[in-house]
Amino acid sequence: MTEVTDAAAVEEPRPERMTWRDRLGRAMGGDAWTIGLAVVFLAAFLFTLVLRPAYGLEALAIASLPIAFAAAGQAIVVISGGIDLSIGSVIALTNVISAVLLMNAPELSVPIVLLVLLIGALIGLVNGILVVISRVPDIVVTLSMLFVWAGAALLVLPTPGGDSVEWLGELIDGGFVIDLVPRALIVLLATVGIVWIPLRRSRLGLSLYAIGSNELAAFRSGVNVARTKAISYAIAGLFAALGGLALTASTGVGQPIPGPYLLLSVAAIVLGGVSLAGGRGGLLGPIIGIFILGLIRADLLFLGVDSAYSTVIQGLIMVVVVMLGAYLTLRRKAI
Amino acid sequence: MTADIVTARDRSAFAAARAVMRDQPLVPLFALLALLVVVLQVAQPGIVTASWASGTMRFAIPLAIIAACQTLTMLTGGIDLSVAVVASMTAYVMATLVSDVGWLGAALVALVPAAVVGLVNGIGVGVFRVHPLIMTISMSLVVSGAVNVYARANIAGGTRVPPEITWLGGQSLFGFLPTSLLLFVPLAALILFGLRRFGYGRLLYAVGDNEMAARLAGVRVSIVLVVLYVISGILAGTAGLLYAGVIGSATGRLVDPYLLPSVAAVVIGGTSIFGGRGGYAGTIVGALILTVLTTLLNVLGMPEATRQILFGLIILAVAAAYTRLTAGT
User: Fold this and answer.
1) Which of A17, A157, B95, B154 could disulfide-link to B250, CB 3.0 to 4.6 Å?
2) What is the Cα–Cα distance from A37 to A58, expressed in whole angstroms?
3) Please, which residues 259-298 of chain A have a Cβ atom closer than 8 Å to chain B?
């Protein structure tokens, strides 16, 4: 990743003196955005504690878990230059598959969890292969597959039902060592870390950024573009399956109608500093973005604001953030 | 491997098919539509009648108008994902105002917020250069929240779809021509003619084909885009009003399920999502195809789940066939 961004930086003519706008704009692509997000998150959390001193991170972490996995999966696809509109349906499908299997064979829960993860990755791989071989734009392919996977979820389980097992719920319920650190957060960071950190340091991770940054350049540098693209969707499918399992664990049932995960995952991408043009950003930003959105919702609730208003406010915050982000990128390009 | 054993004759037939697709993209679309109608008639003999055609058109017309927003924005390489919530909002606002200001006043007033949403989208996309997908998704969040707020404030007011709107959306002339054609034919003619002949219509293609070239040729791209998204908002609102007439009632989420079909109709109709290629005629046939397809899947007695799966697979298959056959040199 560093090689790619450095190469991009060398190509740009460097201005002799940088104004604060240039610095800010330049920092958008780097870690500064994530650090800024973390600061915003801490500020929002402190504000929440002022409003409601007893507020802990636990409820936030459990509620955000499926959406955070969706955001992580979406981020990987967007970094490699695609988009996955079907991610909400895949979460619903893996959610109902796990709930049905766990109801019928609770004693086999560990193999079932592994099987569901495998199914998620295979579903993602199907999406990716279709994008590659059909040559249809990724938006259209994943839009069509959104219907297919949503239908499949309804086939598996026409009405909400199924069951979970106890250890899954306990895995995300409560604190880790001390009560201040919620287990759900540890599970999230651990699973994302196990998948993402080795991946990003590998040749494949570099290829993901490369095809997102410039597909032709990546191809000419010897990257197998088709395979890398398909794998990016497979990893997104794996994360969607984690999201589905998290949903099973936290609600204890399978719900065949997908929640608003697509919208929220794209919102998190934007907030998290991942460029929709591809090749830029990481997974931590979008995950923090999801937590910030959750905190805002909680704050507005504690302030006694009607939930209808809070959707408007969340939307307006997104509009302002995307406009600001685009404006700063524009300034950077103009120089 | 298979390519090696294809005979020259086969290849020329394929090339001819490809040439037809490229020059006359509507021909295969009409063939597909006809095929679906034939299958429908076979599946349930006697279903294809004048009143069936009338009903199909009645449902296809609001979809075709919403898909017009998608067609126009996609021609510039954009997309407008706020159309469905804007349509729902317009229908709902109209239905709450009817008792106070009459049907025409309510319809016109209800189109104002639709245009404002379009304006904000346009400023975001055209001036601030936000990616259209993200801009319009964010705005749809704002709009759906705002509709809830409005509904909360209006809880005592109630809603009513006036008979004039119901007439326009849901009645027939001479027994089989849907009345909504009175609105749709001039509108579609304007879009079809405008895209070919008006300077603005050509600008949409120019911006979508090569924005930099258009800019260097003196096109004010930002103004073109702002106007485009305002038009899109107003068209979405119009579709919402018409759909309220078809259904005969209006809620804050009435048209929301039309979002993805509106994109699908455009894609089936052969407009490129990357901009610069396509047109509205294909979209109209695409909307008809989707409506007939939905009827067919219903008639075949399939459960909702299977219908959704087939719907998705067929859209993908048509899009893939199109991409293969029309792929240029």
Assistant:
1) B95
2) 20
3) 263, 266-267, 270, 276-277
Q: Write the residue in B134, B146, B309 that is nearest to A270 by C-beta.
A: B134
Q: Does A141 touch chain B (CB under 8 A)?
A: yes
Structure tokens, A156? 């598996």
The CA-based angle B144-A283-A58, given to 5 degrees, is 70
Residue of B nearest to A127 (CA): B316
**Residues A285, A273: contact at Cβ < 8 Å?**
yes
Give buried/exposed letters for B194-208 (b at 16+ CB in 10 A, else e): bbeeeeebebbbbbb
Q: Is B173 helix (H, G, I), strand (E, B) or coil?
A: strand
| β pairing state of B177-178 and B172-173 | antiparallel
**A 213-242 residues inside an 8 A Cβ radius of B:** none
Question: Would the CB atoms of B312 and A154 count as touching at under 8 Å?
Answer: no
How far apart (Å, rounded) are the C-alpha atoms in residues A170 and A183? 9
What is the value of pTM for the model shown? 0.82
Nearest CB partner across the interface for B273, out of A139, A267, A329: A139
Minimal CA separation from A200 to chain B, in Å? 26
Place of tokens 């569901």: A116
Other beta carbons less than 10 A from residue A30's beta carbon? 14
Q: Within 10 Å of residue A184's Cβ, how many Cβ atoms?
A: 27
| Chain B closest-CA separation from residue A98 CA (Å) | 18
Interface contact B135, partner A, CB < 8 A: yes
Strand partners, B177: B173
Cα–Cα distance for residue pair B75/B232, rounded to 1 Å: 12
Measured distance between the N- and C-terminal CA atoms of chain A, rounded to whole angstroms: 24
Using a CB-CB cut-off of 8 Å, the residues of chain B touching A277 are 131
pLDDT (tens digit, 9 = 90+) per residue, B273-320? 888 888 899 999 999 999 998 888 888 888 888 888 988 898 888 888
Minimal Cβ distance to B148: which of A83, A311, A326: A311
Residue A89 · residue A153 · CB < 8 Å: yes
Burial class from Cβ neighbours inside 10 Å (0-12, 13-18, 19+) for residue A202 reads: exposed
- From residue B234, give the alpha-carbon distance in Å to each of A260, B128, B147, B257: 26, 21, 17, 19
Nearest residue of A to residue B124 by CA position? A323
**Rounded distance, CA B37 to CA A183, Å?**
56
pLDDT, tens digit (0-9, with 9 covering 90-100), for A37-56: 888 888 888 888 888 887 77
- A182 pairs with which residues across the strands? A175
